[in-house]
Amino acid sequence: MFRIVAKRQLNEAVTLMDIDAPYIAKKAKAGQFIIFRIDEYGERIPLTIADTDPERGTVTIIFQAVGTSTKALAKMNEGDSIQDFVGPLGNATEIDGYKNVCVVGGGVGCAIAYPSAKALHNAGAHVDMIAGFRNKDIVILEDEMRAVSDNLYVTTDDGSYGEKGFVTNKLQSLIDAGNKYDLVIAIGPIPMMKFLAEVTRPYGIKTLVSLNPIMIDGTGMCGGCRVTVGGKIRFACVDGPDFDGHEVDFDELMRRNSYYKAQERESAEHECRMLKMGDEKKEEQNNG
Questions:
Q1: Which of 115, 237, 257, 267 could staple 30 via S-S, CB 3.0–4.6 A?
Q2: 98 touches 120 (CB < 8 A)
Q3: Integer Cα distance of 50 and 60 in angstroms
Q4: What percent of the chain stands above pLDDT 70?
């Protein structure tokens, strides 16, 4: 069992947790991930490692409560325990040799972009960071991102905070202004990563994206996380999760990630019915 050491709500839907996992904390590097399972009946959910504290023996995860398992995890509190917490899995983000880097995060993807920016910053690279959100209310990790970047640019779709516009527009403006990046790291929704890769393609800027396909075992045996990169089948759990954004078949990835939408809706509706029944039962007991 893995104990929840700390919990912090970053916005209405996004939660940060520190998990007591000393062996993972000692070995994990930026870009790697864990797979958790709340209990013996739960599904296996991959989450990128947001940070580690080897001295405390903790691993930080940041997640958005969107499905049955992440919603259940978000309801847990400090002192509660998770049954399975496996890692570090996947390959670490490539950071050696880069001098001028732009790290781009979109929404909750900033939680994944942050450790890469931190690793590059600690390695001595000049790091510009672009963090994009729909609006001011969902901005997360601003102080943390600012601390590991030479320049932090926050954008919002509606202009309610930072600069109005999309991360693609901001990256293009930075390139147009003469910034000579030797690496761009893009992490966020699939369409965002796809279009960022198109921004950098004409300039030949190496662009890494972190992919989040459907994943089950995390060891390459199930084949569920297969993606097409450069016309070849790759497995995100063992070959990634970072891939060359100019070679990823994003359209196929979007199709595969939507395969189980109906089952996800059914699960959410079932949870809502169960919660409603539980509330009605409590009300009956209280009125008893």
A1: 115
A2: yes
A3: 5
A4: 89
What sections of 206-249 are H helices per DSSP?
A: 236-239
| Burial track 132-159 (b if 16+ CB lie within 10 A, e otherwise) | bbeeeebbbbeebbeebbeebbbbbeee
Task: Say if residue 217's pLDDT is above 90.
Answer: no
* CA–CA distance, 235 with 97 (Å, rounded to integer): 26
Please name the amino acid found at residue 148: V
Read off the pLDDT of residues 139-180 as tens digits, 9 standing for 90 and up: 999 999 999 999 999 999 999 999 999 999 999 999 999 999
Asked if residues 253 and 233 have their Cβ atoms less than 8 Å apart, the reply is no
What CA dihedral angle connects 187, 244, 36 and 255, to 10 degrees?
A: 80
Q: What is the model's pLDDT at position 68? A: 84
Distance (Å, rounded) from C-alpha 235 to C-alpha 7?
A: 32
Ordered structural domains, the chain, with CATH: 2-89 (2.40.30.10), 100-210 (3.40.50.80)
* Cα 227 to Cα 253: distance, rounded to the nearest angstrom: 7
Q: How far apart are CA 113 and CA 116, in angstroms?
A: 5
Q: In what order do the strands lie in the sheet with 84-89?
A: 81-82, 2-9, 14-20, 58-64, 45-53, 33-37, 84-89
Report d(CA 229, CA 62) in Å as an integer: 27
Residue type, 118: K
Count each helix (H run) and each strand (E run) in the chain, helices first: 9, 16
Residue matched to tokens 């450790």: 115
Residue where the block lists tokens 């970072």: 242
CA atoms within 13 A on the CB side of 241: 28
What letter does residue 248 receive in the DSSP assignment? B
